[in-house]
Amino acid sequence: MDFQLKTLTVAQAAAEKSDVLIVLVGSAPLTSKDPLSVLAASARKAGDLPDKAGKLLGLYRPEDVVASRVVLAAIGDGKPASVRSGVVAAVNSAKAQAPKRVTVVFAQPAEGAAVASAVTAAADASYVYTATKSKAEPRSIRHLTVGVADAAAVTGAFDAARATVAGIELAKEWGNRPANHATPTLLAEAAKGLAKLPNIKCEVLGPKEVEKLGMGSFAAVAQGSAEPLRFIVLRYHGAPKDQAPVVLVGKGITFDTGGVSLKPAAEMDEMKFDMCGAASVLGTFRALGDIQPAINVVGLIPSCENMNDGRAVKPGDVVTSMSGQTIEVLNTDAEGRLILCDALTYAKRFEPAAVIDIATLTGACVVALGGVRSGLFSTNEALAAALEAAGETSQDRCWRLPLDDDYAEGLKSNFADVANIAGRAGGAITAAKFLQRFAGDFAWAHLDIAGTAWKSGAAKGSTGRPVGLLVSYLTSRAASGDARTGKAKKTKTPGAPAKKARATK
Ligand code: BES
Ligand code: MN
Ligand code: ZN
Hints:
binds manganese (II) ion, nine-stranded mixed beta sheet, 2 domains, binds zinc ion, binds ligand BES, single chain, 15 helices, 505 residues, Aminopeptidase, six-stranded mixed beta sheet, alpha/beta, Leucine Aminopeptidase, subunit E, domain 1
């Protein structure tokens, strides 16, 4: 689907060649005298278009409009979240007619964030999965025109949103593919494909190299599978070489059976989504390739299956991680942390400005936060604040959870330096405490996306989260002076003006 931004009044949008015209109507009074604005104002007055984001009024062949269908969509206060509700409702209602060309016009002036929200919402509502269907009906919308009062004022936000959509859709695509169509090898091929984009490089390590590096914990998870593991290293260079990078680490379990600590059968299919952290790293690189922000980013993806087999790691086995710490594997289903810990140790070699891991890590996080906010853990105040802010801006929200040392009590082992599980209580936090042991030397944050990476039930499918959050974080970091320092500043407020001029590549 291609996106276009235009300066359009409602009257001009009515003259656009499209199958459906969506008019976004905010709470502010409609002063334009064109027929559609007058109609919207009278519908509002009559109570037929309530001033509540997501409320719709459909029109068929109204006079002087090229599109045969018009949807008036209320967007209330016009804030990004309200625009999202309006656009999602309108696109969903228009989908039945399989429109090819859609025009979305703001009836009142709109800010960049609202325009960006319209773009991501329209893409989200119209995404269709096709990869493994024999007679797939692809997404009907080919062209989406967004009309605003002043296109020049929102071009930057619009372009970034378009790039973010490409990233979100790549993440959705890989998240949705079944495990036999998304093996570690195939994920690595997808990563290599990203190296075609400017300033992106990719390197893929296999079992031999991983063993040589001493990643005994990662290798232990992979040893029960017939599929060879892959360790993917992506690099994006948008800033001078000596600038410390942000490292993203994505959990890439392409299928999680639980291993010997086998999961129950119900909904086990959803464990194909256990590589959504990895998919979010791929998606973020896809967006970076388009946006080309002035920042350096490294993406690390440990990827393997967690299978049950004669060779599989067993409860009680002790493995040696790359850091040298030994780990007692009390539960083979707590495998995410076992692959992430070695990737975190590997991250040190980049002398990172910050390391963020992204993982569908714990069922406990789903219980705690549901599907609305991802869990955020960090030992670094500035990094935590910046990620929270990025979540708000992108409407890909997270919620910070604590990391008190008391939570690590249960990780004690009689036979190794640490156990891979603690008791049931506070499971998302004890998992984060385990990871923290491997992230001592740098500014670190952990995003538990177990509840937010995919939807279950009738709408089962990957959400592409938290690509929006990550892209927003990285681009605002590039735009502020922060990225220049090579270190995460302790007192920096997100969004504060840049201290130094932007460096050129
Ligand atoms: N991939 C799962 C986490 C998960 C479970 C995500 C359900 C989304 C829905 C992870 O590998 C796992 O199995 N975690 C265990 C940890 C436990 C054994 C300490 C869990 O959460 O049950
Ligand atoms: Mn598991
Ligand atoms: Zn898992």
